[in-house]
Design goal:
Shape: globular
Largest sheet: 7 strands, mixed
Order of helices and strands: HHHHEHEHEHEHEHEEH
Helix content: 25-40%
Number of strands: 7
Length: 244
């Protein structure tokens, strides 16, 4: 075990500003997460960020910004969360550590990354977590997953119109989709309004994360108000090449 005293101080202090008091057990889980992330990253490309403080802020604390939305999605009881394009498990796994009662699914198309996620879940002894290797364009048409989640999140890079097509089909009516975006996104928001509407969503707000450490972070919050037409998402690659 690497020695850092005190462990995860930047994260603990930042999480407190979100109203989250991390327990010693949660801090230890996040410490192990950091160590495994850095270890595995030497073999497979999971992240360009490996500095101890930077991982705390730009990965873990950034992921926990979604906690600001959890209550909007109906509280935490019988809560189903899907992380689309999860990669190294962000934001899904930090949220699961802090909200252990959440039922989590992590979806990524890269088998090497989902192998890491499966290992990490066992290492952290997390219950009620499913890891799925596949493309959202296929998985979203399967009955076990279509319109079954209270909250769908994505930190994946891409235009909002494209991300909406890959995520909103998973969202149950009354649920919420959250895209973690950065910087000046006004044009991207305007471009996505029509696709969001077609997919059964309605933009609730673009929430600025009021935290100096996460300057520029925006949470694009979309309510799922009606069923997504069966056509969507379209075939793999089409949402990227031809956004709605």
């Amino acid at each position: 075990m690497m020695q850092h005293e005190p462990k995860m101080r930047k994260l603990i202090d930042g999480a407190a500003k979100f109203g989250l008091g991390l327990t010693p057990g949660q801090v230890e889980q996040l410490q192990v997460y950091y160590e495994e992330l850095v270890s595995w990253n030497q073999r497979i490309n999971l992240t360009a960020i490996t500095d101890y403080e930077q991982v705390q802020i730009k990965h873990f604390l950034d992921s926990l910004s979604v906690a600001l939305v959890v209550e909007m999605a109906g509280g935490r009881s019988k809560f189903r969360l899907l992380d689309v394009g999860s990669g190294a498990g962000l934001p899904g796994i930090p949220l699961k550590i802090v909200f252990p009662e959440v039922k989590l699914m992590l979806l990524d198309s890269t088998a090497k990354k989902t192998a890491f996620l499966g290992y990490l879940i066992d290492r952290l002894e997390l219950d009620e977590v499913e890891v799925l290797t596949g493309r959202a364009e296929h998985i979203a048409h399967q009955g076990d997953y279509r319109q079954r989640f209270n909250l769908v999140v994505s930190r994946a890079v891409g235009r909002l119109a494209t991300i909406a097509e890959l995520t909103l089909p998973f969202c149950q009516i009354g649920g919420i989709f959250v895209a973690l975006k950065k910087g000046h996104i006004d044009g991207e928001i305007i471009e996505a309004l029509r696709p969001i509407n077609i997919l059964g969503g309605k933009l609730r707000e673009v929430k600025k994360v009021e935290l100096e450490e996460l300057e520029g972070r925006r949470l694009v919050i979309v309510d799922k108000v009606s069923s997504t037409p069966q056509l969507y998402p379209r075939r793999p690659g089409v949402p990227q090449r031809r956004p709605l």
